[in-house]
């Protein structure tokens, strides 16, 4: 068989063959070098190979080159290079020393794609893990910001969420680089986000986006002061099965942090996982809320109230302070349902909740135990006087009729009061005494307050 000239074989290889002098000068590279490093062979012959190495990998590369020159066969070494276009190439090297020629013979295998896939898998995994480990949506947004910051410049980063029920947009997470030039004014930002969410397509605006190519670019530029004209704005929709639930927004006013088509693709890829994580966390928060709050009035429910009462009792015990409990039941509420219908009854319960909240301080707890039963927890102070004042205020407030969509309706409460430590030191016992006192109020004609009798109490 006729022998084939070796250069023909070398020319066909996807891997690049390199011959490097002991001082790192490149003496020969095969044609594949250009595909991997971006430089044609004639552009690098005579240059130093080390000058192409990513600065962070230079020291380790130099020590590996020394090992090869010490006679070790190198089969596994991986490092990074800065391509001619500024992008990063990941390379795995096989190299040996040619002692008689005093040259390093090395073969470069391009592993950039593999590295990219690995880093994307790590990002996807990190996002999905964050969805499980973070305690709330805010913490999840922070994690997502950090993770995306490892892929792209993300010093100006925002999460926009769209609420389809109210057709409204909010920015629950928004971080701006300290001292950064102002980002687009709120109306422009809103309009751009709304565009991304409603169209379901990514929008990348750069200083090179011609105004006539995208009217949104023109709009953005018109609204910005001249010195901030070279603005990069990248918005990616957060797509779920039920449509776009929001958008991720990155922006930059500097050329150092500019966004390209590749960044756009990267963010698009990650955004599906981000959307799933946010959706999962939203669902979790909704379920948690449903388990703790009354769906009609949005007040804490019995379970959450008992938890709060338990904590408040522990605090009162520790601080040797007092607390009081008001148990409130509406008088003849059933008649409202019977005469005006259940929906009006619901509306009245909502208005009652609102009025109770208006009667107490922000630090007090108002809860709905169920039906037409409410409780108010007042902490500290002179419990007896405090409770009496709050109860009087509530009775006075209920002296005004409620407006139910044009129908004016009067309803009064019966109120029972129990005080810690006078009437018990345990939550169910205290609640029981307040309930009994309320029952006595009701039996005496309603629309009044009764404090539990001192003999009901136990030494806490
Ligand atoms: N509209 C509405 N009604 C409810 C809800 N939960 C319970 N109810 C009704 O509230 C009423 C409460 O009954 P009671 O407290 O025993 O009756 P009342 O008419 O207030 O009588 P007194 O408490 O003796 O003054 C019942 O008719 C329940 O059906 C609710 O979520 N919405």
CATH superfamily of the largest domain: GAF domain
Q: How much helical structure, as a percent, in the residues? A: 40-55%
What is the second-level CATH architecture of the largest domain? 2-Layer Sandwich
Low-confidence segments, ≥5 residues, pLDDT <50? none
User: What is the number of E strands?
Assistant: 17
Global Rg? 35 Å
> What is the arithmetic mean of pLDDT?
89
**Main sheet: which strands, in order across?**
2-1-5-4-3
- Give the helix/strand class: alpha+beta
Q: What profile does the largest beta sheet have?
A: 5 strands, antiparallel
Number of structural units classed as domains: 3
The CA-CA distance between the termini, in Å, is 104 Å
Quick one: CATH class of the largest domain? Alpha Beta
What are the distinct ligands in this entry? guanosine-5'-triphosphate
State which percent range the strand residues make up.
15-25%
Tertiary shape = elongated
CATH topology of the largest domain: Beta-Lactamase
Please report the number of helical segments: 14
């Amino acid at each position: 068989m006729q022998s084939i000239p070796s250069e023909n074989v070398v020319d066909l290889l996807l891997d690049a063959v390199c011959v490097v002098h002991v001082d790192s000068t490149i003496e020969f590279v095969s044609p594949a070098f250009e595909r991997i490093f971006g430089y044609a062979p004639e552009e690098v012959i005579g240059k130093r190979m080390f000058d192409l190495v990513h600065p962070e990998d230079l020291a380790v590369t130099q020590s590996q080159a020394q090992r090869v020159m010490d006679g070790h066969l190198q089969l596994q070494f991986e490092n990074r290079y800065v391509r001619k276009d500024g992008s990063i190439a990941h390379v795995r090297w096989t190299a040996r020393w040619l002692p008689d020629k005093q040259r390093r013979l090395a073969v470069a295998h391009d592993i950039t794609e593999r590295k990219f896939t690995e880093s994307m898998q790590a990002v996807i995994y990190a996002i999905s893990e964050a969805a499980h480990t973070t305690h709330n949506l805010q913490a999840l947004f922070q994690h997502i910001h950090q993770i995306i910051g490892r892929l792209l410049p993300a010093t100006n980063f925002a999460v926009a969420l769209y609420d389809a029920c109210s057709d409204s947009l909010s920015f629950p997470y928004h971080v701006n680089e300290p001292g950064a030039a102002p980002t687009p004014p709120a109306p422009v930002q809103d309009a751009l986000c709304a565009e991304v969410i409603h169209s379901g397509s990514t929008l990348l605006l750069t200083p090179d986006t011609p105004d006539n190519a995208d009217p949104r670019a023109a709009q953005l530029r018109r609204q910005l002061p001249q010195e901030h004209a070279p603005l990069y704005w990248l918005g990616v929709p957060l797509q779920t099965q039920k449509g776009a639930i929001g958008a991720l927004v990155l922006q930059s006013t500097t050329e150092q942090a500019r966004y390209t088509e590749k960044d756009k693709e990267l963010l698009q890829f990650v955004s599906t996982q981000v959307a799933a994580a946010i959706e999962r966390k939203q669902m979790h928060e909704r379920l948690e809320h449903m388990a703790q709050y009354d769906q009609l009035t949005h007040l804490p429910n019995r379970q959450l109230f008992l938890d709060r009462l338990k904590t408040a009792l522990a605090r009162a015990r520790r601080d040797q302070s007092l607390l009081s409990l008001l148990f409130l039941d509406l008088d003849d509420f059933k008649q409202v349902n019977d005469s005006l219908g259940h929906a009006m009854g619901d509306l009245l319960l909502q208005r009652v909740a609102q009025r109770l909240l208006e009667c107490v301080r922000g630090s007090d707890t108002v809860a709905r135990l169920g039906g037409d039963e409410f409780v108010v927890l007042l902490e500290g102070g002179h419990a007896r006087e405090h409770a009496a004042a709050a109860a009087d205020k509530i009775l006075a407030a209920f002296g005004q009729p409620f407006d139910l969509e044009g129908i004016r309706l009067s309803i009064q409460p019966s109120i029972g009061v129990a005080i810690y430590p006078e009437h018990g030191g345990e939550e169910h016992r205290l609640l029981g005494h307040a309930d009994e006192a309320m029952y006595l109020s009701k039996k005496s004609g309603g629309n009044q307050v009764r404090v539990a009798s001192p003999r009901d109490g136990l030494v806490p």
